[in-house]
C-alpha cells in the first residue's frame, strides 16, 4: 500500500545516456500503441525535446524548459519523470507522517524507481494473463477500504485528498495493487506445495515446543542477490548488507535505512513486517532473532534471495482459545471459465449467464455442464471440489459461497482464477479437531514458504525484464 491509510492488500523493485524528452506522457502511450500495432521493437521513439513557448520579444535565445522526460524503459512501456516525481512526493509525505527520518533524496529516488520497475513488470504480466479489475470491482474495493477505516466513502475520499493525492489517481493505484495481488496469487501462492510430511513435522515440532505460541512484530531489510549472480556480484551485495548493519550498530534509524537500502516489498514502510504468529513466519527470520532481545537487530542472514537483517520490535502471547470452536465446512461445486488473452472476463461472464439460464430452466444438470464447460480440474467430477474449510478458497469465491442457501446457484463470480458459477450442496460443523489441526498446520507451513517464494519470483521477474535507464540524461 502506498499510503498511510491501512489496507489488507499486500504491495512491493544504464544502458544508454541519450536524452529523450516528451511533451506529455500521453504521447508515450500513443507511440507505444502505434509500435504494438505495427510490430515495431519496444523502444519508443520520441521527439528530441519538448519546450515551453518562447517570447518573440526576447533578444536572447530562450532556454528550453523541460516539461517531462522518460527515466526508464520497462519492456515495452516507459516510466516518466512526472510519474517518478509524483510517487516520490507521495512516499516522502507518508514517511514524514510515520515519523521516519527521510533518506537522502537521491537514494530514495533510486529505491523508489526500482520499486516502480518491479511494479510495472507485475502489471504487464497481469495484463498479459488476461487479469482485469473493472470499475464495479474497484468501487467495491474502495468501499471496503473506507469501511476498514471506519469512514463513509466521501469521508475516505476527503482524507485521501487532504493527504495530497488526487482521488482519481488513488483509485488507479488501488486498481494496480489489486492486479499485482492477483498475479501473485496466480503465479506464486497457487504453486506453493505442502507435503503431508511437512505437516506431520510441523505438528510434531509444535507439540514439543515448551515456549507456547507467540506473536512477533518484526522489521526487515533485504539486500537482494540477482538471479544467476557471479561471485563478484554476491560479494558486492554482502558488502552492501554489511555496510547497512554497521550503520545500524552505530545507532542509525532502521526505518530510514530500510527506505534507503532494502529491496523487500515493505522497504518504503520502514521495513515494517507487522505482527505475525511465530509459526507463520519464515524459519529464516525465527533463526535470525532466536537470541535477539526486543529492540535488537540480528546479524546478517543469507538466503537464496539475498542477505537479510531482521529487527525484533515486539513480542506478545497469542490466545489459547484459538481452536475451541469447530469451523463450518461447505460441500461445494463450481463451473470455472478461465479468463485469458483469448477469453475476456465479459465473454466468460456471458457464457456463465447462459449456463445458469439452462440450469434455472432445468434444461441441463450442473454435473453435465461442469464436465462439458468447466476449465477446472474438478470438471471430471461434475465440478465437485468436496468439503472446504474457511480460507481454502479465494476470498471472492468464499464470500459468494457463504451467502448461498443449500442447492442455490450463484450469479457469475469473479476470482483471480476466472469466472465461476457456484453451488452449495451441504454444510456441517462437526467436531473435526484433528482435521482442523492439520489444516492449520498446512496453512502455517504454506505461509512460511510464501514470503521466500514471493521474493524469489520478484527477483526473477525483475532480472528477466528489459530495463533501460535514462534517469541521468540531461
Automatic annotation (TrEMBL):
Q: What's its catalytic activity?
A: [protein]-peptidylproline (omega=180) = [protein]-peptidylproline (omega=0)
Q: Which GO terms describe its biological process?
A: Gram-negative-bacterium-type cell outer membrane assembly; protein folding; protein stabilization
PANTHER family referenced in this protein's UniProt entry, alphabetically: CHAPERONE SURA
Q: Which organism is it from?
A: Undibacterium piscinae
Q: What gene name is listed for this protein?
A: surA
> Which protein, by its recorded name, is this?
Chaperone SurA
Which GO cellular component terms are attached? outer membrane-bounded periplasmic space
Q: What residue range is the signal peptide? A: 1-30
Which ranges form a coiled coil? 74-101, 345-372
Q: What is known of its domains?
A: The PPIase activity resides only in the second parvulin domain. The N-terminal region and the C-terminal tail are necessary and sufficient for the chaperone activity of SurA. The PPIase activity is dispensable for SurA to function as a chaperone. The N-terminal region and the C-terminal tail are also required for porin recognition.
Biological role stated in the UniProt entry: Chaperone involved in the correct folding and assembly of outer membrane proteins. Recognizes specific patterns of aromatic residues and the orientation of their side chains, which are found more frequently in integral outer membrane proteins. May act in both early periplasmic and late outer membrane-associated steps of protein maturation.
Stated EC number for the protein is 5.2.1.8
Subcellular location per the Swiss-Prot or TrEMBL entry: Periplasm
**Predominant localisation class:** periplasm
Amino acid at each position: 500500500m502506498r499510503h498511510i491509510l491501512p489496507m489488507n492488500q499486500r504491495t512491493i523493485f544504464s544502458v544508454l545516456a541519450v536524452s529523450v524528452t516528451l511533451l506529455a506522457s500521453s504521447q508515450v502511450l500513443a507511440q507505444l500503441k502505434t509500435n504494438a500495432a505495427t510490430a515495431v521493437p519496444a523502444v519508443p521513439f520520441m521527439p528530441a525535446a519538448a519546450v515551453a513557448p518562447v517570447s518573440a520579444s526576447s533578444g536572447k535565445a530562450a532556454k528550453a524548459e523541460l516539461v517531462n522526460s522518460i527515466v526508464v524503459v520497462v519492456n515495452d512501456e516507459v516510466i516518466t519523470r512526472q510519474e517518478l516525481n509524483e510517487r516520490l512526493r507521495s512516499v516522502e509525505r507518508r514517511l514524514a507522517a510515520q515519523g521516519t527520518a527521510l533518506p537522502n533524496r537521491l537514494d530514495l529516488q533510486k529505491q523508489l524507481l526500482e520499486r516502480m520497475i518491479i511494479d510495472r513488470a507485475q502489471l504487464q504480466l497481469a495484463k498479459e494473463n488476461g487479469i482485469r479489475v473493472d470499475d464495479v470491482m474497484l468501487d467495491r474495493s474502495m468501499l471496503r477500504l473506507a469501511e476498514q477505516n471506519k469512514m463513509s466513502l466521501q469521508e475516505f475520499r476527503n482524507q485521501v485528498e487532504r493527504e495530497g493525492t488526487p482521488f482519481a489517481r488513488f483509485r488507479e493505484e488501488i486498481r494496480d495493487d489489486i492486479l499485482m495481488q492477483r498475479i501473485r496469487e496466480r503465479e506464486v501462492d497457487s504453486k506453493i506445495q505442502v507435503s503431508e510430511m511437512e505437516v506431520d513435522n510441523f505438528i510434531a515440532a509444535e507439540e514439543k515446543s515448551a515456549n507456547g505460541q507467540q506473536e512477533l512484530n518484526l522489521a526487515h531489510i533485504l539486500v537482494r542477490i540477482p538471479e544467476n549472480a557471479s561471485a563478484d556480484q554476491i560479494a558486492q551485495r554482502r558488502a552492501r548488507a554489511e555496510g547497512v548493519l554497521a550503520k545500524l550498530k552505530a545507532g542509525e534509524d532502521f526505518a530510514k535505512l530500510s527506505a534507503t537500502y532494502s529491496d523487500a516489498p515493505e522497504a518504503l514502510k520502514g521495513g515494517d513486517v507487522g505482527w505475525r504468529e511465530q509459526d507463520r513466519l519464515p524459519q529464516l527470520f525465527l533463526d535470525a532473532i532466536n537470541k535477539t532481545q526486543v529492540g535488537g537487530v540480528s546479524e546478517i542472514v543469507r538466503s537464496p534471495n539475498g542477505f537479510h537483517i531482521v529487527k525484533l520490535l515486539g513480542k506478545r502471547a497469542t490466545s489459547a482459545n484459538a481452536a475451541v470452536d469447530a469451523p463450518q465446512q461447505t460441500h461445494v461445486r463450481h463451473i470455472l471459465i478461465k479468463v485469458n488473452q483469448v477469453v475476456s472476463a465479459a465473454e466468460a461472464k456471458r457464457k456463465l449467464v447462459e449456463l445458469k439460464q439452462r440450469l434455472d430452466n432445468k434444461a441441463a444438470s450442473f454435473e453435465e455442464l461442469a464436465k462439458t464447460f468447466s476449465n477446472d480440474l474438478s470438471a471430471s467430477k461434475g465440478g465437485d471440489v468436496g468439503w472446504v474449510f474457511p480460507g481454502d478458497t479465494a476470498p471472492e469465491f468464499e464470500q459468494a459461497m457463504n451467502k448461498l442457501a443449500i442447492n442455490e446457484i450463484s450469479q457469475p463470480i469473479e476470482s483471480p482464477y476466472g469466472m465461476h458459477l457456484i453451488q452449495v450442496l451441504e454444510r456441517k460443523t462437526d467436531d473435526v479437531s484433528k482435521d482442523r489441526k492439520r489444516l492449520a498446520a498446512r496453512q502455517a507451513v504454506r505461509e512460511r514458504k510464501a514470503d521466500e517464494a514471493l521474493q524469489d519470483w520478484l527477483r526473477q521477474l525483475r532480472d528477466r525484464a528489459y530495463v533501460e535507464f535514462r534517469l541521468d540524461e540531461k
